[in-house]
Amino acid sequence: MHIRVIVPVLDSPELVGKALAEYRSFAPPGTTVSAVPLKRGTASIEAEFDSALAAPEVMRLAREAETDGVDACTIACFTDPGLAGARELVSIPIVGEGEASLHMAAMLANRFTVFITEITLFPLIRRVVARYGMTDLLASVRAAGASVLELDERALEHIVAQAIEAVERDGAEAFVMGCTGTGLDMAEAVEARLRAHFGLSIPVIDPGKVALHMAVAMVSAGLSPSKLAYPSPAFARDEYDFA
């Protein structure tokens, strides 16, 4: 099985290389994982503008993946740029990390908190949550206090403090790492610290891991997007020039 990760930002070792290494680390045995960045776009997605610019390239890369014989794709961004359009354009499963992680949170808890990088992203994240009909399940949105390109282990202490506060003040029962570049190690570290503090398990969801395993599950189950929900465009396959 071959899963391709569409990384909807310009190529950089900080994001693309790290993302591929992380995906491969938690891929099920026998799963090939490849990753492709955008040729046109922005260095990170931190606004609707960035997400909108990424959408055409995401759709192009989804079509390219299907042509290459890839079994499914994931979109490595919480805003899921180009997700619906890509599902219309191709027949293979396309999984958005935002949609996948929010649905997983809804299955694991009654209310959840989304962690993002900066407070300027609050409106964007709230719109993503609303798009998937989960506003009533959102306990809060909390900021890690670093940009997407800076977010790493140095932010751990701040995130843990914010998570404890979200449980005690906001009623959060689970957490979603809203910046998909935080990495699995960050999610696991936060979850371990919360278990030590509260003495019980509180899920901290890494969108990349959830999206990859959801894509694998769809392929294994023989599932793909409904063409009643995502009808194929009349002209895009042959006539639209993505170049």
State the domain count.
Answer: 2
Q: Decide which structural class fits the backbone.
A: alpha/beta
Order of helices and strands: EHEHEHEHEHEHEHEHH
User: Would you identify the regions where 5 or more consecutive residues have pLDDT less than 50?
Assistant: none
Task: Tell me the major beta sheet.
Answer: 4 strands, parallel
User: Shape from CA axes?
Assistant: globular
Helix proportion range = 40-55%
CA-based gyration radius: 17 Å
Biggest sheet strand line-up: 2-1-3-4
Average pLDDT confidence is 90
CATH topology of the largest domain: Rossmann fold
Query: CATH architecture of the largest domain, please?
Result: 3-Layer(aba) Sandwich
> What is the first-to-last residue Cα distance?
28 Å
Give the percentage of residues in beta strands.
Answer: 15-25%
How many beta-strand segments?
8
CATH class category of the largest domain: Alpha Beta
SS element count, helices: 9
Family: Belongs to the HyuE racemase family.
Organism: Arboricoccus pini
Protein name: Allantoin racemase
GO molecular function: amino-acid racemase activity
Question: What do these coordinates show?
Answer:
By secondary structure, the chain is of the alpha/beta class. The chain folds into two domains: 2-97 and 208-239, 3-Layer(aba) Sandwich (Rossmann fold), CATH 3.40.50.12500; 99-207, Rossmann fold (3-Layer(aba) Sandwich), CATH 3.40.50.12500. The chain has nine helices and eight strands. It has helices at residues 13-26, 48-67, 83-89, 97-108, 122-131, 156-170, 184-198, 207-221, 236-239, and strands at residues 2-10, 32-38, 72-75, 94-96, 112-116, 138-143, 174-177, 204-205. The strands form two sheets. The chain has a four-stranded parallel beta sheet, with helices on both faces. Strands 6-5-7-8 form a four-stranded parallel beta sheet, sandwiched between helices. Strand 5, helix 5 and strand 6 form a beta-alpha-beta unit. The chain is globular, with a radius of gyration of 17 Å. The model has no long low-confidence stretch (mean pLDDT 90). Pfam families: Asp_Glu_race (PF01177). This is Allantoin racemase.
